[in-house]
Backbone:
C-alpha cells in the first residue's frame, strides 16, 4: 500500500533537517525553531489545516493544530514532536549535519531520529487525510514544540502552563521515544513502546566551612567536606527496584527470546539481553552522577563555600525515598539545593490504543511484537502527563538489524533509513485510523 503519505515523508523530513534548529540551552544562540514551525504551518496550510504559533519567547515558536474527528464527544489524541535538535559539530560528521543528504538508503542529519523523522510522519499522514477527505475517529491535536532538548521551559512546559485549554481534552498522547525495532531473528522483531520515563532531579550540593589561609592547619574546609560527599555519591550504587513497566518488559522479552529471565533478579536478566542491555541497565535503579564542581578563587585561600551538581534520575514512585537515601550518603551537614525537578511518569501498557499499536505494526511487519519499556531520559511527555494525559513513546521505525540505533541519539552521523520512514508513515496511519 504505497500511500502518497509514504511518498512525501522523506521530502518533508529532508526539508526539516535542512532547517538548523540547534538548541544550545542558551536562548541567545538557539536558532531556527520559529523557521521550522513556520515551515510546518505552511505544510498544514497547503492542505487546509489551520494552525496557531505560540511563542514562549522571541522566535521560540510552538505550533498547535486540531483536526476534528468523527466522534467529537471522545477525548482527543495528542500527537507531538519537538522541532529543536541538540548541537552537531560538523567536523566530526561524515556528511554536513544540516544538509539533509540522502545516501546508502539513509537520510542523514541532526534530528533524523530525534525527532524530525516523526515530525515528518505526522505531517505526511494528516496531509494525506486532508487531500483524500478522510476524517479520523476522534479529534487529533498536533503539537510541534520548541526547547525539548534543554529543559522544555519554552516548549511543552510553556504550552501546558499557558495554553492548557488547547490540550485539556486529550486523553492520550503519542510522541518519542519508542516504536523502533530490535531484531531477534528473521521472524521476530521487538518494537519497544515507551510507557514510562525516569524522573529528573538536578541537585546542587553546597558545603560551607570556615574560610581561611591555605598555610594553616584547618579542620573545617568546605572543599574537603564537599569532596567527601561527592565521592560518596559517585561511588554509591542504588539498590535495584523493579517497576511495573520493567517487570512487564522482562517478562515479554524473556518470553519472546525464549530465555529464562528472573524479574526478581534483574541484573542477571539484563546482562542476557545483549545489545539492548545498555538501554535497560539504567532502568532498574536510581542513579546519581556528579557532573560539575565549583569552589575557590585563589590557590592559597580556603573558600567558605564549595558546591557540586549531581544529575539524579529516579524511577517512578522513588523520588522521596531517593532523597532520603541521598541524605544518608552525604551526611547531615551538606545543603541540598534543587536546581531542576521533573517527575517520573508511568502509564499502563494496555488498552485500545496499545492494542492498535500492535495491530498496526503486525499489519506492516508480521514478525512484530510490542514490548513496553521505561526510558532513562526524559521527553515532552513529562509536561503533557501533568495534564493527566497517558503518554506513549511510539514513533514507528523498522530498522536494519545491524544498526546501532541507540548510539545515534544525539550522536555523530545521526541518520534514519528511508524505508523505515515510509514504514513509519504506514504504521502511524493505520494506528490513527484505529485509535
Ligand atoms: Zn527527542
Residues:
Amino acid at each position: 500500500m504505497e500511500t502518497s503519505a509514504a511518498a512525501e515523508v522523506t521530502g518533508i523530513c529532508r526539508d526539516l533537517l535542512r532547517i538548523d534548529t540547534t538548541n544550545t540551552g542558551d536562548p541567545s544562540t538557539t536558532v531556527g525553531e520559529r523557521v521550522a514551525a513556520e515551515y510546518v504551518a505552511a505544510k498544514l496550510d497547503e492542505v487546509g489545516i489551520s494552525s496557531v504559533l505560540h511563542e514562549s519567547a522571541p522566535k521560540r515558536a510552538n505550533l498547535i493544530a486540531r483536526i476534528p474527528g468523527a466522534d467529537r464527544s471522545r477525548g482527543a489524541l495528542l500527537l507531538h514532536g519537538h522541532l529543536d535538535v541538540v548541537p552537531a559539530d560538523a567536523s566530526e560528521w561524515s556528511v554536513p549535519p544540516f544538509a539533509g543528504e540522502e545516501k546508502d538508503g539513509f537520510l542523514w542529519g541532526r534530528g533524523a531520529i530525534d525527532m524530525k523523522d516523526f515530525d515528518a510522519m505526522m505531517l505526511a499522514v494528516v496531509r494525506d487525510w486532508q487531500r483524500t477527505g478522510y476524517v479520523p475517529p476522534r479529534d487529533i491535536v498536533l503539537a510541534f514544540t520548541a526547547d525539548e532538548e534543554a529543559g522544555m521551559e519554552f516548549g511543552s512546559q510553556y504550552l501546558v502552563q499557558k495554553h492548557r485549554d488547547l490540550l485539556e481534552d486529550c486523553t492520550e498522547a503519542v510522541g518519542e521515544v519508542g516504536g523502533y525495532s530490535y531484531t531477534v531473528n528473521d521472524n521476530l522483531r521487538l518494537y519497544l513502546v515507551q510507557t514510562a520515563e525516569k524522573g529528573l532531579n538536578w541537585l546542587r550540593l553546597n558545603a560551607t566551612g570556615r574560610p581561611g589561609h591555605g598555610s594553616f592547619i584547618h579542620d573545617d574546609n568546605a572543599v574537603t567536606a564537599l569532596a567527601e560527599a561527592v565521592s560518596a555519591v559517585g561511588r554509591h550504587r542504588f539498590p535495584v527496584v523493579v517497576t511495573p513497566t520493567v517487570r512487564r518488559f522482562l517478562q515479554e522479552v524473556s518470553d519472546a527470546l525464549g530465555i529464562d529471565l528472573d524479574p526478581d533478579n534483574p541484573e542477571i536478566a539484563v546482562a542476557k539481553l545483549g545489545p539492548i542491555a545498555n538501554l535497560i541497565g539504567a532502568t532498574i535503579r536510581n542513579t546519581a552522577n556528579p557532573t560539575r564542581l565549583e569552589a575557590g578563587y585563589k590557590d592559597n585561600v580556603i573558600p567558605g563555600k564549595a558546591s557540586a551538581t549531581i544529575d539524579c534520575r529516579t524511577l517512578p514512585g522513588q523520588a522521596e525515598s531517593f532523597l532520603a537515601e541521598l541524605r544518608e550518603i552525604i551526611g547531615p551537614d551538606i545543603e541540598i539545593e534543587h536546581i531542576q525537578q521533573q517527575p517520573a511518569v508511568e502509564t499502563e501498557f494496555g488498552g485500545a490504543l496499545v492494542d492498535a499499536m500492535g495491530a498496526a505494526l503486525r499489519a506492516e511487519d508480521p514478525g512484530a511484537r510490542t514490548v513496553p519499556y521505561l526510558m532513562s531520559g526524559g521527553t515532552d511527555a513529562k509536561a503533557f502527563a501533568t495534564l493527566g494525559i497517558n503518554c506513549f513513546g511510539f514513533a514507528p521505525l523498522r530498522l536494519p538489524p545491524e544498526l546501532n540505533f541507540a548510539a545515534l541519539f544525539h550522536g555523530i552521523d545521526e541518520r534514519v533509513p528511508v524505508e523505515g520512514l515510509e514504514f513509519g508513515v504506514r504504521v502511524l496511519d493505520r494506528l490513527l485510523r484505529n485509535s
